[in-house]
Protein 1
Amino acid sequence: MTRILMVCLGNICRSPLAEGILRQKIKEKGLDWEVDSAGTSGYHAGSLPDTRSIGVAKAHGVDILDQRSRPLQHADFLHFDLVYVMDKANLRDVKAMAPNVELAKKVQLIMDLVHPGEHVEVPDPYWNDNGFEGVFQMLEEACSVLVSQAELSKY
Ligand code: 4NP
């Protein structure tokens, strides 16, 4: 089983979308994966995703209402195989929390799946009401690549 963790700052805007999109795709493809999300901060621990993320997800047929924000924990670095982050601040913060250098290698920018080595960031939409659709599209693209890589590796 592949275990994937999506991480952003608050775990209310971007990473819940990434989790919801990937969950939907693995269900469609019948993949036996575990998917979760977390935040580098605990500011919103226990909260539902941001209403704007819930809305954009719903508009695309993705339900994220069962999610609640939680902070990243040390145990996550052992449990998950891959940790995808949204921006360079997340990358720095998450790598800094990794128990050792080897486990820090599990942490990658999610858009590197689409544009390898270009270090494209998924912008924080928290202060930008119009940013949510673009964020959804970026994460949709990245999750499509992730799932198609898994299909290729079956053969
Ligand atoms: P997220 O967005 O990291 O995509 O969940 C944010 C959510 C909350 C805050 C910042 C970004 N905040 O400052 O509370």
Protein 2
Amino acid sequence: MTMMKKLHLGVAALAVSATGAIAQEVEVLHWWTSGGEAAALNVLREDLSGGGIGWTDMPVAGGGGSDAMTVLRARVTAGDPPTAVQMLGFAIQDWAAEGALANLDELAAEQGWDEVVPEALQAFSTYDGHWVAAPVNVHSTNWVWANTALMEELGIEQPTTWDEFVAAMQTAQDAGYTALAHGGQAWQDATIFDSMVMGVGGPEFYQAAMVDLDPEALGSEQMVEAFDRMATLRGFVDDNFSGRDWNLASAMVINGEALFQIMGDWAKGEFVNAGLTAGEEFQCFRVPGTEGTVTFNSDQFAMFNVDDESDQESQLAMASAVMSPEFQIAFNLVKGSAPARTDIDPSSFDACGQAAIADLAAAGESGNLFGSMAHGHANPPSIQNAMYDVITAHFNGEFDSATAAEEMVTAVELAQ
Ligand code: BGC
């Protein structure tokens, strides 16, 4: 077992400087840079500031967090890790295996995290039986976001099958709208790919291909079909999709330029931030073919081993704040995600939030809850990046679908 520094409670309640000013502070590395994300981040910042904890911001833009993880690696290599880091799934496990993360067991025991954090999240928040991260939310990624007024104008009902979904996009395109708002970035391509794999092959196939990395599943006819669906989606994006940030794609749906966006429910944060109401000006529904299943990711804060005692106290204070039920409600209402605790009353959430919370619980019970590959919860970063490369190359027309499925087999094998 690697060395994990145990953070102790009650060493010094607050570190106060000679002038009486509060000296506690956290430096937080994160990738929450869009309007909706920044609004959610402010909820956290203000919560901590209410508890006397200062904030040094270390934003690294880029959905999915690949760029943030590159910056993190450089900081740790330079011997200067940030106090707290937004992190996803297998990346938490990798850092814990390196012995870089602080042990939060004492706080977790005092606050009963074991009882309120669902097992699917604990699988990532704990390493070798020890708590190493505090989960702030659960996002589900297999959503479609739709502009209600545009659906009505075009006479489009909520599609429930892949064929209806394609027909709806065709109607929008024929009428001169962008059917699918999308940004051509590897993590966004991968986000929609998760839903194509689930939609074509269902839970068993998703498990075999994305989680178990079974070469037969990766190279199967179903995988070819998942790529075919990606090619269909590619036909419905606008000419300027390449490199566009996800929140600008959300803005196209918000502004009525585009009909749909396939994206995790952080997109809801953008709609809400623009003053729109779920179920009224915008709709959310599961990507047709994935109903009853949920692909998820959970943003967690991992605390890096630091020597300074005041920094350690700040880490505990931050972890404690993140896990409080009141904070989990306030934050997730703005972020678009569901709380990471199972004991939260969903009544203050909007229609999409309540659907997300109910879907997550139901999928968890029926065995249909799966970690999102695109967001680091199905397989380790090395495999995820190998998959990203193939998916994006195919989306940009470098491979046909049959070749892409073959490339998946090879790329995954090489990355293992
Ligand atoms: C994170 C979300 C974030 C999204 C886009 C995801 O990987 O889990 O919190 O909003 O990326 O930046």
